[in-house]
What we know:
Blueprint: H1 7-13, H2 15-22, H3 25-32, H4 37-64, H5 68-94, H6 100-104, H7 110-125, H8 128-150, H9 160-167, H10 169-185, H11 194-218
Helix pairs in contact: 1-11, 2-11, 4-5, 4-7, 4-8, 4-11, 7-8, 7-11, 8-9, 8-10, 8-11
Amino acid sequence: xxxxxxxxxxxxxxxxxxxxxxxxxxxxxxxxxxxxxxxxxxxxxxxxxxxxxxxxxxxxxxxxxxxxxxxxxxxxxxxxxxxxxxxxxxxxxxxxxxxxxxxxxxxxxxxxxxxxxxxxxxxxxxxxxxxxxxxxxxxxxxxxxxxxxxxxxxxxxxxxxxxxxxxxxxxxxxxxxxxxxxxxxxxxxxxxxxxxxxxxxxxxxxxxxxxxxxxxxxxxx
Length: 221
């Protein structure tokens, strides 16, 4: 009997890229506190722009949902991003000397444009599962990174507060909910099917986009 897919199978499909994502040099420098302030500030600025498009993608997920139950599953992603997460990001940026006006005036860097438009395009062209396959690598990957970095003890790390956010129970819970929902969406997909390969390619491409997003921050050094 053919086994049905889970999000873990999507990670396994792009295992090399996944490791490069969650163990990127940007992440390693966050862990030991050696990342330059210029790199981190650029990342924070571009992440603000990313989050705005991320909210649009969740709004698209509501539109793409064929049932009310599925709409209810995607709606919290929109509301939490627009009403909470982006506001928290703005407050966090203030600690690094970046105010909301500065963030709004930014130009999108190349990797930011590529990543966000890919996710939105995948959602427009495909079904809800295609959109989530492109959305979820962000949430799951950051959860893995948060867990990994929380185990590393670095004295006076200026980025400890960032690590604490993604290692925290609240974020871990949200990431797991996203993973579980993707599992629900692909629960009837066989791992040896063409449909699985389509979803896995979307997941892999989004993972590669995450690598590029880290790299554009690191390039600021």
